[in-house]
Write a structure and sequence with these properties.
With 474 residues, the chain is of the alpha+beta class. Helices cover 25% and strands 28% of the residues. The protein has 4 domains: 2-118, Phosphorylase Kinase, domain 1, CATH 3.30.200.20; 122-290, Transferase(Phosphotransferase) domain 1 (Transferase(Phosphotransferase), domain 1), CATH 1.10.510.10; 305-372, no CATH class; 390-473, no CATH class. The protein has a 5-stranded antiparallel beta sheet with strand order 3-4-5-7-6, with helices on one face. Its EC number is 2.7.11.1.
Length: 474
Amino acid sequence: MSYCLNPTCAEPQNRSEAEVCQHCGLIVQLQNRYRAINPIGQGGFGRTFLAVNEAELLKPRCVIKQFFPQQQDANLLKTASQLFQREAQRLEQLGHHPQIPTLLAYLEQDHHQYLVQEWIDGQTLEQELKMGAFTENQIRQLLQDLLPVLQFIHHHHVIHRDIKPANIIRRRVDRTLVLVDLGAAKFATGTALLKTGTMIGSAEYTAPEQIRGKAVFSSDLYSLGVTCIHLLTQMSPFDLFDGTEGQWIWRDYLTHSVSDRLGKVLDKLLESATNRRYRSAESAIADLSSAPQLEVSRSVEPTTPWQTIAETLVNPLIALDIEPAKPLATAAKSGAARFASRQHLRISNWSFPAALIVLSLPIFLMSVLRAVSSPRHYSHDFAKPASQSATIVAPHLPVTVSILMTDRAWVSITVDGKLEFEGVLPEGIRQTWTADQQIILQAGNAGALVVSFNQTPDQVFGKFGEIKEVIFSN
């Protein structure tokens, strides 16, 4: 089916192969390639259509946005037209990001403005919320997905200004969250941030300074925080704020428990005063990464020298009748083909010299194996030439490591002895971790990572195809 884009057409539905509308005679295609199939939304300033790109062999789906304001006030029309043009400019300026729809075309035809962009097949978080309130793990994942996107657009001096569940789509093919509708986005410069302008955004999710027309980068973080508590409670944000006391009361409406650590992150996102709120997505990412993750993270107990030795000695202990107690944990870690099996041990009636000899033998054998194994190679930026592993030291400071993915790659992050992340990170994402003492970064394709250590300038982690490990410590 084809759908006529003439707003006044009384019978807009046409045959799939139609070149002009059978009722009003308007050309059906845009630029002889984009054909609207059916309308999927309408707002105060325009209409949105599902469409196909017939100039391509597979005829992929896309979205056509038509500027068609309902208001006739001259000032409103001017503002609406500027917002429509701004969305095209912002999408073009931001370029390609896997979590922002790609701009395909911006054009004018038959006295109407049109914007054509990538079709994101999936449900909005507003639609998902109808299935029930979100859990802590879902909110953590949301923040981990979207904070790097905000970091990306803020680095391009763009403020989204309309973050809410309806503008976040979970892409069906990979379950990744995509941030849509940059129509309200504003280009920010050092002086522009200080000027009072038009209030744009959805009132329930809008930061106080944005209501006054003074949106800043952290205004997006505020809106993201409000989005989170709305998803956690299924309550209108207006009902989650006590105007009498001047404070958020979202915890009173939770249907699932939330840890104190995540609660503190949300509270800081929701601060009314910008000087108490997170000033950047990076700082929020750092706090979120340092917080323990439910159902994922495991506490790491300190080990004594005897326990460290014992980790390598399951079979010899059995032979010597050294009785192991109940195992504490067994973990398999990929990357450098490691594994560890931790056990508390009780040694029965053996003389100290005999036990020491037996315990030392495997250590000696492991040292020999390490000596003859192939050494790792590191890039000049991070490596110590005489060492098989690189160690970067930041005396007396917390350790913060930020990575930007320029391509897909397997990454493992261990923070203060605890595995925080292991898996494949997509191109375009930025993640930040903070530790008290040490961060171990492993990558299966070092050339795909750009790394910053304690806010130093970004550096390429290594060569493409190189497997690399670096220890950052204080």
